[in-house]
């Protein structure tokens, strides 16, 4: 190698490092924002740039601006600078870089920081499909929807400074714009709370207001609690409603979730009480938004995992439809146990579903699809056969399948009385249409009672008549004894002969017997003619001869009567 070439190489090596330093070969600084890079309009944000210790000035650059957006001297210990924005507006939205200056030259630019300002469009809606309750290790789909035609949707997870997912919007047949974000597998080791935004492609740093937060509850396999209400699940607007979550497991906290709700499930700590642990969730006064399906969960403070869900409880709000159905019963409101009973609910106005509710029952109402017949929408609720436990007061309602938890006004109450029920019989049904059919059982009862009274009266009449006949005859005044019948026959023949011939007849000479002067034979009634008429008296025969002849003559002489 020639001396000239060696000299040039040494000169190049000594000049090279200084030239690269002056051209910006210092390490690139770090750039971040507090409290985050996604900030609401009108809020305060701080941008930090951190570089080498030798830096004596930091520059903040924004895309689209030829000169630095801001310059700041380093803070102690001298390796970072603070850029404060006290009131964020749309002019601050954009992409930023920072660099630092040192005696040896300028550093390279930092990685970009995208400052997003929210609150420029209406908020979208975030929901979980099928619901926000996910088993540990499971997956779920989060749906962000809006009627505004956003080009893209962004999903943010609470606690993370950057967007979790960004997806192009789609427009299905429902008419809303949406994006579906798959999430999972989820674990109980962290909280899973999300919000979503929408934006347009021409302003990618100007987002909508955030959606309401949606928290995924990671449920486990521990014993499920019970969800109940002291009132009926059918409630009226303005009514106070409290849902109670109870469990024999000693849970420290409880959560109440409403299906398809956009807000976070309600959380309550365990409330001191005797018996099972639990919490009361007051929901009143009731309005249409309270209608829906609810479940509750229990959990322990030392774990982020929740129990298995309770059985669902449907809350139905009445008076949300303009129609009022009518309720009737066949064969009638008073039936015998074991009979077939049909409750007919019908309405002039269109409803696609009818519900039958029993007063005081904790069970959910019965549901049937309506059918159009004879100018009415109707449904028939059959009880075949009816039991005494089904007696009670019933009402029916109408609803639409699109909003099954919002009901019409109630029908008039109808009381069904089943014979053999343990309770006292109540008043008759207040619905006049319920008495349209013949109450044959009442008629049978009345008819049987009338027949019994008539039979009793007939027996009394016969008994009285029998006693009167017995008083008119003395003992022994019955038919003549057999030994007196011959004497009675001879007396009657002699009397006929005497009347026919004027004398005693042959019979007078036999046995020295003659017919009595008063033409009275033994055993025949004595006829006494008085001024008031003729009376008949029967005297018993004495020794086969009527001894009352002398008494008759004496009576004739004393009273002026003629035999």
From TrEMBL:
What the entry lists under Pfam families is as follows: Ig_2
Q: Please verify whether the record's keywords include Repeat.
A: yes
The entry's localization annotation reads: Cell membrane
Residue limits of the Immunoglobulin subtype domain?
40-105, 236-303, 336-403
- InterPro entries, per this entry? Ig-like_dom_sf (IPR036179), Ig-like_fold (IPR013783), Ig-like_Receptors_ImmuneReg (IPR050412), Ig_sub (IPR003599), Ig_sub2 (IPR003598)
Query: What UniProt keywords apply to this chain's record, in alphabetical order?
Result: Cell membrane, Disulfide bond, Glycoprotein, Immunoglobulin domain, Membrane, Repeat, Signal, Transmembrane, Transmembrane helix
**What name does this protein carry?**
Leukocyte immunoglobulin-like receptor subfamily A member 6 isoform X14
Question: Which gene is the coding source of this polypeptide chain?
Answer: LOC106980902
């Amino acid at each position: 190698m020639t001396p000239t070439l060696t000299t040039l190489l040494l000169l190049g090596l000594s000049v090279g490092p200084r030239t690269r330093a002056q051209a910006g070969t210092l390490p690139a600084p770090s750039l971040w924002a507090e409290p985050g890079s996604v900030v609401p309009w009108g809020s305060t944000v701080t941008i930090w740039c951190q570089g080498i210790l030798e830096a004596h000035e930091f520059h903040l650059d924004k895309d689209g601006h030829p000169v630095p957006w801001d310059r700041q001297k380093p803070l102690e210990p001298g390796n970072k600078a603070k850029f404060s924005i006290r009131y964020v507006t749309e002019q601050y939205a954009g992409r930023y870089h920072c660099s630092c200056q040192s005696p040896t030259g300028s550093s390279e630019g930092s990685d970009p920081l995208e400052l997003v300002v929210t609150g420029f469009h209406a908020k979208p809606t975030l929901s979980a499909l099928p619901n926000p309750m996910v088993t540990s290790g499971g997956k779920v789909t989060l749906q962000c929807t809006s009627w505004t035609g956003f080009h893209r949707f962004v999903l943010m997870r609470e606690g993370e400074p950057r967007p979790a997912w960004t997806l192009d919007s789609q427009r299905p047949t429902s008419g809303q714009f949406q994006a579906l974000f798959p999430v999972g597998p989820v674990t109980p080791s962290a909280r899973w709370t999300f919000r979503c935004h929408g934006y347009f492609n021409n302003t990618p740093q100007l987002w909508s207001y955030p959606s309401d937060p949606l928290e995924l509850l990671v449920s486990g396999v521990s014993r499920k609690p019970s969800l109940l209400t002291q009132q009926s699940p059918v409630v009226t607007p303005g009514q106070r409603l409290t849902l109670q979550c109870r469990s024999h497991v000693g849970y420290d906290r409880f959560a109440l979730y409403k299906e398809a709700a956009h807000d976070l499930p309600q959380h309550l700590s365990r409330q001191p009480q005797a018996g099972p642990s639990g919490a009361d969730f007051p929901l009143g006064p009731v309005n249409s938004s309270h209608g829906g399906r609810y479940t509750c969960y229990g959990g322990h403070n030392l774990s982020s995992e929740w129990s298995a869900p309770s059985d669902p409880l449907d809350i139905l709000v009445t008076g949300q439809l303009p129609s009022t159905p009518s309720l009737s019963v066949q064969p009638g409101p008073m039936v015998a146990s074991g009979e077939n009973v049909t409750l007919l609910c019908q309405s002039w106005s269109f409803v696609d579903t009818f519900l039958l509710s029993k007063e005081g029952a904790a069970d959910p109402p019965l549901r049937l699809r309506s059918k159009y017949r004879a100018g009415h929408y109707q449904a028939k609720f059959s009880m075949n056969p009816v039991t005494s436990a089904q007696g009670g007061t019933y009402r029916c309602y109408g609803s639409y399948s699109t909003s099954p938890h919002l009901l019409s006004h109630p029908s008039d109450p109808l009381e069904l009385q089943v014979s053999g029920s343990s309770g006292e019989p109540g008043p008759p049904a207040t619905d006049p249409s319920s008495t349209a059919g013949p109450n044959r059982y009442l008629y049978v009862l009345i008819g049987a009672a009338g027949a019994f009274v008539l039979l009793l009266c007939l027996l009394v009449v016969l008994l009285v008549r029998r006693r009167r006949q017995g008083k008119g005859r003395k003992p022994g005044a019955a038919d003549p004894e057999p030994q007196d019948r011959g004497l009675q026959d001879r007396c009657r023949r002699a009397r006929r002969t005497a009347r026919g011939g004027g004398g005693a007849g042959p019979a007078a000479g036999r046995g020295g017997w003659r017919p009595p002067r008063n033409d009275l034979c033994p055993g025949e009634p004595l006829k006494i003619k008085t001024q008031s008429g003729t009376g008949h008296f029967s005297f018993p025969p004495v020794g086969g001869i009527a001894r009352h002849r002398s008494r008759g003559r004496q009576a004739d002489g004393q009273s002026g009567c003629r035999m």
